Amino acid sequence: xxxxxxxxxxxxxxxxxxxxxxxxxxxxxxxxxxxxxxxxxxxxxxxxxxxxxxxxxxxxxxxxxxxxxxxxxxxxxxxxxxxxxxxxxxxxxxxxxxxxxxxxxxxxxxxxxxxxxxxxxxxxxxxxxxxxxxxxxxxxxxxxxxxxxxxxxxxxxxxxxxxxxxxxxxxxxxxxxxxxxxxxxxxxxxxxxxxxxxxxxxxxxxxxxxxxxxxxxxxxxxxxxxxxxxxxxx
Length: 234
Ligand SMILES: Nc1ncnc2c1ncn2[C@@H]1O[C@H](COP(=O)(O)OP(=O)(O)O)[C@@H](O)[C@H]1O
Ligand SMILES: [Mg+2]
Known about the structure:
Residues 2-234 form the ABC transporter domain. This protein has 10 helices and 10 strands.
C-alpha cells in the first residue's frame, strides 16, 4: 500500500531522516519505534506532506505522492493523527469531527461515521456541543483518532498515541487500535511505548538518528537483537 524509498528530511543543517526506506502492506500494522529525536515525527510528517522530503520517493496505493499536497494525500486515503493530538480546543467535539471530514462530499456517509464514533465513545456524544479543550487527555486522543478516521483513510499514521496518558488509558487506546486493524485498516504506529506498540504489530522498524536500525518481526526484535534495551531503554 505504501512504499518509501530513500526518504531524507533536513531542517537546514539538521539531518532528521537519512535515506529511510520502508514498506507497508495492505492490512498490516507496522510499528515505527525509536528514541526521542530519532526522526519518527519527521518521517510521518513527510508522508503526509506537512514537511517536504529533501530526497526520496513515496508511492501510495500505486501513485507517486512525493510532491502531492497534504489535502490530496488525505483524499487519496492517507491521513495522520499528529503527535500531541492537535485537536482544536476552542471548537466543539462535533466541529472537530466535521473538520476531519472536510475532504468528503458524501454528507450521508459523514453523518453515519459521526454516529459511529459517538456510539463507540459515549463521552464524545455527551460532550458533543462542548469545547474539545474540556476533554481529558485520553478523551482528546480518542477524538483526535476519530477525527482522522472521519476522512475514511486506507492508511492511518498514528504519531505517539500514548504520549502523556495514564497506563489504563493507553491500554484502551491500543485496544481501539487493535480493533481498527481487525476491521481491515492499514496502520503505521509511531511509539516510544514499545510494549503497547508491539501488541498488535505485524512488523517493526526501529530508527535512531534518522537511520533504520532494524526491520523485521516483533519477536525477533525482542529475542535476538536486544534493540529494545539499546534504543528504547527496555
Ligand atoms: N522544525 C524543526 N526544525 C529544526 N529541527 C527539527 C524540527 N523538527 C524536528 N527537528 C529535529 O529533527 C530531529 C528529529 O526530530 P523528530 O522527527 O521530531 O524525532 P522524533 O519524532 O523521533 O522524536 C531532532 O534532532 C529534532 O530536534
Ligand atoms: Mg515525535
